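@channel sequence for tomorrow's demo:
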Amino acid sequence: MRFNYKFIVQLGYVFACLQFINFSHAKPSDSWSSDVIGVKVQHLDASFWLNKVEDGESILMNQQQILAHNRNLFENNAYVNDPLALPDSLTKQELLDVVNKASSIPTSNRYYQDGTQLTNEDYAEYQEMMNLAQIKSTNEVKFGLVVKRSSLRRFPTDDRVVNDGMDKDLDRFQESGVFPGEAAAVLHSSKDNQWLLVQVYNYIAWMKSADIAIGSKSEVKNYITNPSFLLVSGSKVQTNFVPNRPLISEVDLDMGTRLPLVDYSEVPNQLYAQNPYASHVVWLPTRTDKGHLQLEKALIARNKDVQLGYLPFTKTNLVKQAFKFLGERYGWGHDYNGRDCTGFVGEIYRSFGILMPRNSGDQGSSNYGIDTRFSKTKASVKNKLSVINEMQIGDLIYIPGHVMMYIGQDNTDNKLPQPYVIHDVKGLAYYDQQGEFYRGTLNGVSVTPLLPLRASEEQSYLDLIYNIKRIR
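structure tokens (generated this afternoon):
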């Protein structure tokens, strides 16, 4: 059953949205309630949405098609680059251009956590740490593997800064995150050698030197292209505990991480005083005292949410993967050991082997998959609603600064069906039953209806949608 968009348009989408919503917050029992508009407790159960999926097990893209998708990104998308394709050296001007672009000084004011505004002198100190004076006429590019979950930063510092009036959770020096086993090109070192400027497949920024191990390009390539690998399909798993071996013990592994399997011929009957038969044995990259790459055997218990190879790319698996993050706290740029809206959809799609640009604007503006774009001035509500009416599970909905994933339609209190999304989001705003503007918070991975959400009193999410992308 589909909602009648012609009826919505005739009445005006604001009033139609109000009609759809479960303002009474009806619930199966008196023990559950929420200020999240249009949501009942059953909406928070993946099985509720899985029961609605048609052709849930049909393969949307096979691995050959996914490889072609990734190859197209590497060849044609400015925001996705193969770090191993970089040359073995960069000229002084080439490296200066990269460093200055990655670590550009913000055009708007920034403030420390205590409210002190950053000054030109503060930025001069960060630039001094960037070690620009030591850039040579020819600069060697090194290659390595990430050995632990780490942050990518605009400058080589842990200092947290925010925009004027913004939530202090949103550290504007935090750019993204990287995970064990990811390949990186190492371009430059900070003055104190505690930070490295790296390029991973979808970002260039500074990360701590202790979180990456340097190897040869061939070692790194063989590691990431090994066809026999274990995939982390859960939101987060850990390697087994190993006494006195901190580099391989209880290492955090996020969804989409792939680690090569150790060949059975190399697996002993005892490993770290444990019989490994009930675990998967993988090669984990570690860092020697001198910063060199060393692969170590690590155990991941078979009861963990992992699997051999990538997950089949199906509608059913899209829903299952998304709901594994439900309730996780929002983390700007993978801060707080979590992720943000693009990290959320990126990790879901990486569990199928599908790569995407890092930021929502780069994803929404890029031409890959099937894009349905809307002009700011010419796109009518009717046109948007007709496209929304035809969305498929997993379609990505873009508004400025945010992305959501469509999971299906449902009706509330026997009203007309409406679209629902799952997304990693900070704010919550809508007009209540009395027409009053309500502003709350979500600050995590959340299930919500799409149409009643507001970016402000003047603009709805529907107003702001500029692209709906289907990865095919």
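heads up for whoever presents: Residues 1-29 have pLDDT under 50 and may be disordered.
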